[in-house]
Amino acid sequence: MKKALRLFGILLSLSLGGWCAPAAPSDAAAPAKAEPTLEQRVADLEAYINNGPRNADAPESKVTSKISGPGPAHNGWMMTSAALVLFMTLPGLALFYGGLVRRKNALSVLAQCLGIAGLVSILWWLVGYSLVFSAGNAVFGSAGTFAFLKGVNSNPNTNYSYWVSQNVFSMYQLMFAIITPALIMGAIAERMKYSAILVFVTGWMFLVYFPMAHMVWGVDGLMNGVWNANASIKAIDFAGGTVVHMSSGWSALILCLLLGKRLGFPKEPMPPHSMALCMIGTGMLWVGWYGFNAGSAVAADGIAANAFMTTTLAAATASFVWAMAEYVLKGKPSILGFCSGAVAGLVVVTPAAGFVDSSGAILIGLAAGLIPFMACYKLKGWLGYDDSLDTFGVHAVGGTIGAFLTGLLATSSVNPNLDLNLKGVVGHILWLEQLKAIGVTLLFAIVGTTILGFLIRVLIGLRVSEDVETIGLDLVEHGEEAYHD
Amino acid sequence: MKKALRLFGILLSLSLGGWCAPAAPSDAAAPAKAEPTLEQRVADLEAYINNGPRNADAPESKVTSKISGPGPAHNGWMMTSAALVLFMTLPGLALFYGGLVRRKNALSVLAQCLGIAGLVSILWWLVGYSLVFSAGNAVFGSAGTFAFLKGVNSNPNTNYSYWVSQNVFSMYQLMFAIITPALIMGAIAERMKYSAILVFVTGWMFLVYFPMAHMVWGVDGLMNGVWNANASIKAIDFAGGTVVHMSSGWSALILCLLLGKRLGFPKEPMPPHSMALCMIGTGMLWVGWYGFNAGSAVAADGIAANAFMTTTLAAATASFVWAMAEYVLKGKPSILGFCSGAVAGLVVVTPAAGFVDSSGAILIGLAAGLIPFMACYKLKGWLGYDDSLDTFGVHAVGGTIGAFLTGLLATSSVNPNLDLNLKGVVGHILWLEQLKAIGVTLLFAIVGTTILGFLIRVLIGLRVSEDVETIGLDLVEHGEEAYHD
Amino acid sequence: MKKALRLFGILLSLSLGGWCAPAAPSDAAAPAKAEPTLEQRVADLEAYINNGPRNADAPESKVTSKISGPGPAHNGWMMTSAALVLFMTLPGLALFYGGLVRRKNALSVLAQCLGIAGLVSILWWLVGYSLVFSAGNAVFGSAGTFAFLKGVNSNPNTNYSYWVSQNVFSMYQLMFAIITPALIMGAIAERMKYSAILVFVTGWMFLVYFPMAHMVWGVDGLMNGVWNANASIKAIDFAGGTVVHMSSGWSALILCLLLGKRLGFPKEPMPPHSMALCMIGTGMLWVGWYGFNAGSAVAADGIAANAFMTTTLAAATASFVWAMAEYVLKGKPSILGFCSGAVAGLVVVTPAAGFVDSSGAILIGLAAGLIPFMACYKLKGWLGYDDSLDTFGVHAVGGTIGAFLTGLLATSSVNPNLDLNLKGVVGHILWLEQLKAIGVTLLFAIVGTTILGFLIRVLIGLRVSEDVETIGLDLVEHGEEAYHD
Amino acid sequence: MKKIEAIVKPFKLEEVKDALAEVGIEGMTVSEVKGFGRQKGHTEIYRGSEYTVDFLPKIKIEIVLSDSRLETAIAAILKAAKTGKIGDGKVFVYPVQEAIRIRTGEKGEQAI
Amino acid sequence: MKKIEAIVKPFKLEEVKDALAEVGIEGMTVSEVKGFGRQKGHTEIYRGSEYTVDFLPKIKIEIVLSDSRLETAIAAILKAAKTGKIGDGKVFVYPVQEAIRIRTGEKGEQAI
Amino acid sequence: MKKIEAIVKPFKLEEVKDALAEVGIEGMTVSEVKGFGRQKGHTEIYRGSEYTVDFLPKIKIEIVLSDSRLETAIAAILKAAKTGKIGDGKVFVYPVQEAIRIRTGEKGEQAI
Ligand SMILES: Nc1ncnc2c1ncn2[C@@H]1O[C@H](COP(=O)(O)OP(=O)(O)O)[C@@H](O)[C@H]1O
Ligand SMILES: Nc1ncnc2c1ncn2[C@@H]1O[C@H](COP(=O)(O)OP(=O)(O)O)[C@@H](O)[C@H]1O
Ligand SMILES: Nc1ncnc2c1ncn2[C@@H]1O[C@H](COP(=O)(O)OP(=O)(O)O)[C@@H](O)[C@H]1O
Nearest 5°: phi and psi at E46? Predict the structure, then answer.
């Protein structure tokens, strides 16, 4: 407990410190460098194929490179991946969630996804990218380095990739920053005020997402076990099990508790108004997730290839297992079961995708098909909270399982980068480090959301009036109806 | 005025001339060329990475290349981009527009998009690609050079790309030729005869689209400021602000004026029959637009990367700004507002995407969120035309703003190609050249559409009967209903 | 007849043999190899661009390669393609079929597509990939070589590609294995038991799909004319005309005959419950098909580029021709006509995509727009079977035409690989070889499906009860409704 | 009290509503129905399967009113709903025994 | 004049329509309704939340006709709509005071 | 026999159904309708075009019952459907001449 408090203190001071961190030194006038030799030029070309550093990228290197810009294949794949991740939110998640609510609230879900896309993009341009991906301290990057995406041009930022344009990398990461708060919307659907949502998301990005993302992926991040040799917590998270799914899932739980149940829940039936839309959304999420997971290699290399395979196997297995569990237990495999299972599989494999092999992926698929299934079928009933669309059951439970299983199943035979800074850790005590990362994530998500939620409740209120909830959010908050016959 | 008339005369004679232009000389038997040296081979490989010319591509070059075919990364990205641009129309635009009409006309919109896809593809294969992308005069390419896509194989056409297969390039450009007339359908929805639409589109491609595309992108085009050193108008248009959005938007205005208002407009309520479909379409348009804008670099290079970033920022900003403007003015941020803003942002950034930086993109997003918003909310009411789905308000207004802003915001720090032929122009009088291009575009769109529209009205009639309009186009013109409960 | 029987005997014994085939010898300890010279390194890089073999890939090669892993552009394109092919099923085909059934059965179609995706993925991981793509005999690969995807990592399997990771290749091929049985669902929609479907698909993969795929694409496959010098039947099939469309289409016919007509067919009207969903599905199928066809080059090379072009031209032409045929014959071009034509065009061009030129594609589009059109409009009426959604009319008829036309139109000017083993065949007697391949395909599809169908009918029954059929499969078999107002 | 049930063409709803409002009728209940009568349906073709759709979309307007207003209300409907083409629809009149306003419990003519 | 209101199972609509046509009834108005009665509903489960759906889809057919044809019409409906299983539905008969054809203004039995 | 036609707010359906069940009413037919009355509609704006939507969603519940149960049934509905706010809806009562159960052919009070 004491230790936890101390950690919290450190994190707090680091968080605040981030804002005042000095801007990274600008590229100082470098001494003239030599042209590369023919052999060096060939080696640079090979580096492109192998996603390695150019000769010029070595610290203290004395040569230039003839191919110092982005590498087309890696750039092309990352543009494709970024588009795929946007597709996951617009319209993927919007449909997955929008189909599950009642007809009178269908548009409100779309407005949440669209509004978050716009708002978070502006925050990201302003300072978000800089807070996450510039060097700073263990919790925050520096606010100034890349503010207004200054200096973020088509050249690679070799802290993150030798061959992908930094502007593409920044947009790719933006898509993650968009979908994460959008996931929370599932828990608070059908009753939260739109103004409160916009304020909440703004605060949540600064209190939870930006620090989480920096800690896990920032070059000097606290839990960036793979790339930061000085990481205090030697954890790994390939594509965002902690940053995206756990942070959103646990925040979702807190927020839906603060908000209270929907009028009539659980007595009044609230069946999905369109399972068809929900299934379309699921298909789009699955397809888009290839950008999310395989794109997280930040290259079209063998690690991406492995992530592509594990993502497929985990999603397919979990989808089938969830529905077959229903078949056995209830006699009816449901479409929502297949869809939930697929999403759960994708969630659980997210932190593991580039670190585990095909058998690991199948195991993950099994766990993802059974454990979140139980969480949605049993836990929710027992505990009685109203997590409208099971963000907690799928993303928090799934994300947490995923983070833990990654600790058990990761292997450097699949991803040689695990040998850089984690030689004695992977295969030994990695699971312990993962537990620490889970703890920090819980801390940020729960504390951040609680503070924000209470604040907003006091200041402007979290919830629409009973009348509005009865009529539906679409008509009252957005002045539109989803369908006119 | 006199000058305008003279220009018109020149354009006319050039247009007609195009048809009789001699076919390009076929590759004459070239003298035997030498094998490349090792250094040249390495330079060729580097050229691939940098999207530059091979040694063999230089005029009068005396060597061959070991990699004379397409470059896989550029080819792969362009295939992805072409698929994304098709996705914008089928089903993107079909849903965006289809959701906004009344239920009884939903299918007619889909039939228009599908019919245009088929019809334009056949015209493109026949002669369209040749008229646009072969060398000819300043307004038209030669009809014969690539008729029936003859000679358009997997080798690059180095006039347009060193590394992308010409067949892929031709299909990529086909997708633009499909979506442009499809955009017009928004203005004339719910009342135009299907036969008249097919005839109109056929004529419009020859009178407006093919010359516009050649003038802007053709190797010897009148307004191809970036690549044609002899361009009379030194204007720039990255991905089609004039060719696609202005030409369709202004034609849409003329056509909806010729057609007249829908029965009952504006008294009878005509709300969108499915905002859900409209939002799905918007998401697809946004995702597909990455193919449209970043693909317009015709390579997976740094220019594409920049276009990817500016597209994202402009779309997200405009979407948020439009809806927030509604929030402030009407109290309700609407889903249609978010969607319209996103599309407007994408439209306005289209000509600028590969030429402006991130701050430019944010400015463009702001303008796109406010000006087309005003056009749709106020202008339409004042002027009283019935542009059913606001093709004019979004594409004509947005396209025109975009063309102009590109003139102000373009910078060669983002796109070094601007230094090739536009050294003294960019940053100085480019905005003036952009105004000239706007003028020529207006001329073609307005004159072409007026002539065609009148002709068709006289010959076969533009509009369905009142009875058909009342019952709905789906049942009468296509013999189907969109939904059966 | 005798010959056919003998062939059948051989096939049978080969099929059974496959299961006991010895595992491929593991990579034996190779003698130490030399480092490549600079020239060899450059040649390797060029090989990457040209999608050719590295020096190290030559049999008996004595050098290693500095770029022995996957090539990023080819890998990136294949990941994109695999995602696109998944998109064809989830949600593409699910919507295309789901929109065409009655509202009460809409979800059952989605459950079929989702269930098949899960089930087939697990089978594929278990043994399917191994049975298809490991070396074995002419009909089956060996079950053991790649069981559990053992050894299928990010390195290329040079039997199939020099530059694409085998795990990506295996996932790409999985997507084909998923969509093929899903296509069959069109014929048996609205009446087949879910349990029977799962059992049928499991059996069908082993009896029909795995052997078909091995015969056509396996390194030592019976009908792999392009790559297997020892192929008994020197046929070609670029992306699966026989394996995917014919096998599913003919199996569909058999299964719907065994199953019987829907209650009330053809008297009771059974119009599509949502042509809008059907059209969305069509758009997704078309876009996804680029992954299917251009991806079948297993590289982002010139052959892929050609396939991209032919796919576009055939789909667009067939779509337009089908609807125009309706326009002429019935007075109304229908949305379902445009959609059916597009799918038919894509089906027919599938085996030909990488082998024919643009004129060939237009011819194919014409045939695809007219012949399946007649099959659906006339044949079905005459013969009176109830192929609910025309899987036979489109996929069997279209696939068969495509296989045959490929024989007539293939040309090595488009695809130099045709000169490897088919020098005297292409342009001469290829059509005869194609007929043989058609025969073998019919044999497998018809015999396999008949046996399986009868067996399942006896053991657990194929069909739901009349009551269930009347109420609808969604409610009774899956416990859900597609829409709640 | 009486109940008028008017079956009209869908696009006539707004006009009928306005015409009723002019004669002081301010309460009504409307539903979407399908009508079958002399007006012919249409044919839909889906890949060769032809379906004759006999039922046409109509709107049913129900109004409960006092006997005294019956004639003016009917006249207003007849005028507004008429196009003169087949399928214009019908007006039916039924006896009503009681009407109650749920909000207040008022009964009879007070309630409507 | 009378009005028949028949609540039937949805898939019986075509048969009832045909049976009525056979006895010369050529006008009717049909709507989709939900019925509640002895026939039990079903349960739907969405991720662990079970909903009992008590209301079942039914079709309501309304026919206004002359007293003289009432009996034959009822007989035709009863015959066509019957499956013998619970939930087959009901036939209700109401008095009608007046009927008017909007197109022509014809009244009474002329109008139906 | 009588028929009750109750127009209520949609979210009151479950409560009314339960209240009726408590007084022993176990058969009813329900449909979605749009109501027009004193309760004001709302405005929707689509890109600058404002539409006033006058018709509000309501539920119509139809119950045929014996005269003896009429009063209890009405009382149950009034109690369950009331919110006290404008737009709560109406209860109308009509005479019924006959009722027949299709399944058995039973008539009159037996049938309901
Ligand atoms: N006998 C009837 N009972 C109930 N509704 C009827 C009857 N006859 C006609 N209708 C309704 O009136 C509508 C119009 O009737 P129709 O015979 O088509 O034309 P018209 O009203 O011009 O005579 C029908 O669609 C149906 O809804
Ligand atoms: N008292 C009633 N008033 C109105 N409609 C009724 C009544 N009783 C039954 N219905 C309608 O008749 C349908 C069938 O009734 P039900 O009791 O289920 O079976 P059955 O008709 O075989 O007795 C119900 O779904 C409902 O629509
Ligand atoms: N005269 C009428 N005839 C038929 N339905 C009516 C009548 N008056 C009102 N209604 C129905 O009752 C509903 C409620 O009426 P309204 O005047 O809005 O409020 P209240 O019931 O509180 O007086 C209306 O929406 C409409 O469906």
Answer: -120, 105
pLDDT interval class at E41 (50, 70, 90): confident
* F 3-62 residues with CB < 8 A to A: 11, 14, 42-46
Please provide the DSSP assignment of E19-55 as one string: HHHHTT---EEEEEEEEESSS--EEEEETTEEEEE--
Q: Across-strand partners of D60? A: D7, D31
Measured CA to CA in angstroms, residue A305 lies from A75, A86, D13 at distances of 16, 21, 60
Question: How many other CB atoms are there within 10 angstroms of residue C39's CB atom?
Answer: 12
- CB-based contact A269 E48, cutoff 8 Å: no
- Tens-digit pLDDT profile for residues B413-435: 999 999 999 999 999 999 999 99
pLDDT(A26) > 60: no
Give the tokens for residue A275.
């399972």
**Which tens digit of pLDDT belongs to each residue from B340-358?**
999 999 999 999 999 999 9
> Tens of pLDDT along B157-182?
999 999 999 999 999 999 999 999 99
pLDDT digits (tens, 9 = 90+) for A117-141: 999 999 999 999 999 999 999 999 9
pLDDT class of B21 with cuts at 50, 70, 90: very low
Share of chain C above pLDDT 70, in %: 94
Q: Residue D99: which domain range? A: 2-111
Q: Are A372 and A395 in contact (CB under 8 A)?
A: no
Name which of B190, B282, B336 to mutate to probe chain F: the one with the most chain F Cβ atoms within 10 A of its Cβ: B336
Residue of D nearest to E98 (CA): D93
What is the rounded CA–CA span in Å between residue B425 and residue B420? 11
How do residues C18-48 score in pLDDT, each as one tens digit? 454 444 444 555 568 999 999 999 999 999 9
Residue C124 · residue C177 · CB < 8 Å? yes
CA distances from A206 to A196, A395, B127, F95 (A): 16, 21, 56, 68
* Exposure string for A165-195, b = 16+ CB within 10 A, e = fewer: bbbbbbbbbbbbbbbbbbbbbbbbbbbbbbe
Q: Rounded to 5 degrees, what angle do the CA atoms C16, C18, C22 make?
A: 130
DSSP secondary structure letter of residue B463:
B
DSSP A73: H
**pLDDT the model gives residue D1:** 95
Nearest 5°: phi and psi at F56?
A: -110, 145
- Residue nearest to ligand 1 atom 23, measured at CA: D87
Burial state string for F11-48 with b = 16 or more CB within 10 A and e = fewer than 16: bbbebbbebbeeeebebbbbbbbbbbbebeeeebbbbb
The angle subtended at Cα C428 by Cα C425 and Cα C430, nearest 5°, is 55
Inter-residue contact A270 to A102 (CB < 8 Å): yes
Give the pTM.
0.96
Q: What is the CATH number of the domain that holds F80?
A: 3.30.70.120
The β-bridge partners of F100 are: E91, F107
Query: Where does the pLDDT of residue B6 fall: very low under 50, low under 70, confident under 90, or very high at 90 and above?
Result: low
Residue B273, helix vs strand vs coil: coil
Chain F residues whose beta carbon lies within 8 Å of the beta carbon of residue E91? 98-100, 102
Specify the residue with its C-alpha closest to ligand 2, atom 26: E35
Which domains are present in chain C? 30-68 (no CATH), 72-478 (1.10.3430.10)
ipTM strictly over 0.90? Answer: yes
* Side-chain-side CA neighbours of residue B229 (13 Å): 3
Q: How many domains does chain D have?
A: 1
- The answer for A 250-289 residues in CB contact with E (under 8 A) is 266, 269-272
Tokens of E20: 């009525």
Which residues have a Cβ under 8 Å from the Cβ of B327 and sit 6 or more positions away? B333
Task: Report the residue among D36, D42, D53, D59 best suited for mutation to probe ligand 1: largest number of ligand atoms under 8 A from its CB.
Answer: D36
